[in-house]
Write a structure and sequence with these properties.
Spore Coat Polysaccharide Biosynthesis Protein SpsA, Chain A, two-stranded parallel ribbon, globular
Length: 247
């Protein structure tokens, strides 16, 4: 309930809380059915993240959509209020994210539309659980790509960037839980997906050749040195640092 309570604690009150229970076999459904302020959607079977995201977003009745995973939390009670105010003042912007933290590490992303576009093919320029986006914009690009196993959020940002402006705020609003469950095989597969994805947008965003070099070299490194979990994240942070300085 930590994630849900952090949504409840938001100062922005004009909101609905939708929970998609993706076929869990524990007592999640029973627990959430007791919460009168929650709109609960129960998938009879596990439909995977991508489809569940679309189910939840399509069920939303508001002008804006935010999302949060069950193991993370919002720590800034003004988070939604800040992002909604930003979107109201900037009607050409479809999505606004924020900074986050994982343990003691602060996770920052580019702030301006120009800087976000410069990094779009190189790395995902938003922290997924921090974003607020316009539902109209989400619907106009067809939502999350359900054919993807990885990087469905990044693919959505790329689609939105074709039609709208993009932005991040510098505020740290969200805590990401430290998870180390992905295996080396998962990471290698993800970078393979990423290379396929960026090829589709090579004429939309700049830096295609550099981005392809980056994703190819990371994939090759992970195939040779089977890093997973925390070691993988440390390697990527170091690698990203040097590639970003080259831009």
């Amino acid at each position: 309930m930590r994630a849900i309570n952090s949504v409840r604690d938001q100062s922005y009150t004009n909101k609905e809380i939708i929970v998609v229970n993706d076929g869990s076999s524990d007592n999640t459904q029973h627990t959430l059915e007791q919460q009168s302020d929650i709109i609960l959607i129960n998938n009879k079977t596990n439909l995977r993240l991508q489809k569940s995201l679309n189910i939840g977003c399509n069920a939303a009745r508001g002008k804006y959509i935010a999302r949060l995973d069950d193991h993370d939390q919002w720590i800034d009670e003004e988070k939604l209020a800040k992002q909604v105010a930003f979107l109201e003042k900037n009607p050409d912007v479809a999505i606004v994210g924020t900074a986050a933290k994982s343990g003691e590490r602060k996770i920052m992303n580019p702030l301006s539309d120009k800087d976000i576009r410069r990094q779009m093919l190189f790395r995902c320029p938003f922290c997924h659980i921090t974003i607020v986006m316009r539902k109209e914009a989400f619907a106009s690009v067809g939502g999350y790509d359900e054919t993807l196993t990885y990087s469905e959020d990044w693919a959505l940002w790329m689609k939105l960037g074709q039609k709208y402006q993009l932005a991040n705020l510098s505020d740290v609003t969200t805590v990401i839980s430290e998870e180390t469950g992905l295996t080396n095989i998962n990471y290698v597969s993800q970078y393979t997906t990423n290379r396929t994805l960026i090829k589709s947008y090579k004429n939309i965003y700049s830096g295609f050749l550099r981005a392809m070099t980056y994703h190819w070299s990371v994939r090759q490194f992970l195939r040779m040195f089977k890093l997973g979990g925390t070691m993988h994240k440390r390697f990527i942070r170091i690698y990203d640092y040097f590639f970003l300085r080259m831009q």
